[in-house]
Design a protein that fits this description.
heterodimer, A: mainly beta, 5-stranded antiparallel β-sheet, B: mainly beta, 7-stranded mixed β-sheet, 4-stranded antiparallel β-sheet, 11 strands, 0% helix
């Protein structure tokens, strides 16, 4: 069983809608959780990180963490065509020395 | 400009011919790491280094070697490349002390082994 699971998509949403991306993880001791965005042919770039249960907002992005359910999500409000990319969920282990990535969800925002 | 650089960006080689992919960062980061990215499998960690002369295996270390003789450099060595090592490789670095542990990624090296 993969340690970090994401639906590969593609997830297609119309421009202006809310895109909801989900991620589950298996290591209950994980402490830090990250969302990276990766455009085709480019390197990943960090969008948000979260390490406390609840919501964390940054502009149009909201990360949600539920450690009891081992679930992390990313909401993108007012989705724009420029948000079309692959979104990678990453989980840092308790020792803080390794980052495990999910397979990524491809998001397509249609004008 | 703060950055992670990798060379070469593209490489086509033949089975068994030793190669080295270089990685360098100018941010004085302690932590450096190598990943490979394959379709449907996401990023998988090959090796990482917590500091100079300290390296450890990630999830997929077979067929790879690394060294960390200087803080800024973390080369990836393929002693005898095989076709299953055809992949997109990323080097990353981070400042170990920061709570976000944000990793800065290099531009990637696309390797093809025939």
């Amino acid at each position: 069983q993969k340690e970090v699971e994401q639906n590969s998509g593609p997830l297609s949403v119309p421009e202006g809608a809310i895109a909801s991306l989900n991620c589950t993880y298996s290591d209950r001791g994980s402490q830090s959780f990250f969302w990276y965005r990766q455009y085709s042919g480019k390197s990943p770039e960090l969008i948000m990180f979260i390490y406390s249960n609840g919501d964390k907002e940054d502009g149009r992005f909201t990360a949600q963490l539920n450690k009891a359910s081992q679930y992390v999500s990313l909401l993108i409000r007012d989705s724009q065509p420029s948000d079309s990319a692959t979104y990678l969920c990453a989980v840092r282990n308790n020792a803080g020395n390794m980052l495990t990535f999910g397979g990524g969800t491809r998001l397509m925002v249609k004008p | 400009e703060a950055q992670v650089t990798q060379n070469p960006r593209y490489l086509i080689t033949v089975t068994g011919k030793k190669l080295t992919v270089t990685c360098s960062q100018n941010m004085n980061h302690e932590y450096m790491s190598w990943y490979r990215q394959d379709p449907g499998l996401g990023l998988r960690q090959i090796y990482y280094s917590m500091n100079v002369e300290v390296t450890d295996k990630g999830d997929v270390p077979e067929g790879y070697k690394v060294s960390r003789k200087e803080k800024r450099n973390f080369p990836l060595i393929l002693e005898s490349p095989s076709p299953n090592q055809t992949s997109l490789y990323f080097c990353a670095s981070s400042h170990k002390g920061q709570p976000s542990y944000e990793q800065y990624f290099g531009p990637g090296t696309r390797l093809t082994v025939t």
